[in-house]
Amino acid sequence: MATEEHSEGLAFHPMDQFIVKPLxxxxxxxxLTVTNVTLWMAIAVLCVIAxxxxxxxxxxxxxxxxQSVAELAYGFVHKMVEDVAGHDAVKFFPYVFTLFIFIVxxxxxxxxxxxxxxxxxxxxxxxxxxxxxxxxxxxxxxxxGVHFLGLFWVSSAPLPLRPVLALIEVISYFVxxxxxxxxxxxxxxxxxxxxxxxAAFAPLILISGVGIAVTPLSILAITAIYxxxxxxxxxxxxxxxxxxxVYLRDALHPAH
Amino acid sequence: MANTTHTAADTATEAAGHAAEAAGHAAQSAGMPQxxxxxxxxxxxxxxxxxxxxxxxxxxxxxxxxxxVLADRQRTITSxxxxxxxxxxxxxxxxxxxxxxxxxxxxxxxxxxxxxxxxIQKDLDVATAKADAxxxxxxxxxxxxxxxxxxxxxxxxxxxxxETAAALVSALGGSADDKSVASAVSDRMKG
Amino acid sequence: MELAAAAALxxxxxxxxxxxxxxxxxxxxxxxxxxxxxxxxxxxSAAAGQTATLFIGIAFAEALGIFSFLVALLLMxxx
Lengths: 256, 191, 79
Fold this sequence. Notes:
The structure holds 3 protein chains of 3 kinds. Chain B is mainly alpha-helical. Chain B has helices spanning 8-24, 26-30, 40-171, 178-190. In chain B, α3 (40-171) packs across α4 (178-190). Chain C starts with a helix and ends with a helix. Chain C: Keywords: ATP synthesis, Cell membrane, CF(0), Hydrogen ion transport, Ion transport, Lipid-binding, Membrane, Transmembrane, Transmembrane helix, Transport. Chain C: The record marks 62 as: Reversibly protonated during proton transport.
């Protein structure tokens, strides 16, 4: 129904919010160019410092609000690592916590109007996922040597099936970073793009009479999807972290 | 994503901006910005910088601090609970001592009361006995006196009777010696 | 130009078809969550310990829907 309005003035650019732009003019995005990615990652870093360094400055036995939040995050991830990956995975806790905190802050900061979401970019999430994949693989081989390959050799299956299962296991092992990264980036991108699509319908009331019905509906939809996105922002960070823990468990205890 | 409050002017300027942008990097705007490989190096570089900063801030400063605070709190709570437990035990002990003291005092008091009562009873008994003896002595003395008086009285009655009898005999004109009068009187008084 | 128009048509049809995959993912997520709820109502004491498993299951089911969404996006914007 929006086809004729579309040509008249509705601007559908759901993907424009993901464009990486240099902050200080220019067109070329070099390795060191300060871009909106830099800006929003810096904001995330500053938020982390504010929450976890300034917030816990008091070291109070009875915490204030900021310190409670910091402790809550600490306890949440610590328990996750301990429960899912096992007690000996606690030495990876700072690494997992870094991932979790970076993703959480990127996701939530990305929900601010006009913000840029680093985690909606395949490059970013792929880097995170590949880092996890390499860590897990290296830890597995360092800890268990060749026995780590036992992860792919399902010894509980009947012997003739084992090579087939091993093939499947190997493929699924290498698909892990792909799904790991695309899940996060896809969720972020999808939510933001859907909000943008609905936002594009919102000014319809300025162009056509149909807008009297469409504009309130689209604003309602934006509100609802925004609420869903707040949930998704947290859940995806949680899922990314818990899958990291699951992979770590596989590396530390490869017995199938 | 959040341009929900467009005004007409905004829309116009935005549209103009989009047009300019589209002209600027036509290839980029057409596709997904996520697949624009020319920005990958930049993103990954800043990502690594951000991750390293976060990692060092967390692992060097924040996490040890929070861990220490949590451990500290745990220790404080544990020691507080232990202290409370100790105080409770002390309170129970004190209560027991208090009850013991009360019971002791009560039994002591009962003993003292019993002793005092026994002493008083003894004194009382002695006094009673003494009084009884005195009373008995006095009674005996009185009885003797009464007996004496009675005897005295009897004697004087006999005298009076002798005299009266003698006076009567003489008044009647007879004469009687004292001896016969006395025997007669004593005979009459006996009979 | 006929060819370009046909290509554009194919792109949009393909993107629409790819979105059907998201419906499958929705069924998968609903299945996971529904079965979790059924199990949790039967044995509420065991439910709290299994929320991590629930989220992992949802994440795996959802990932495939995201893949089809990605295919749609690629068709729309990248091909």
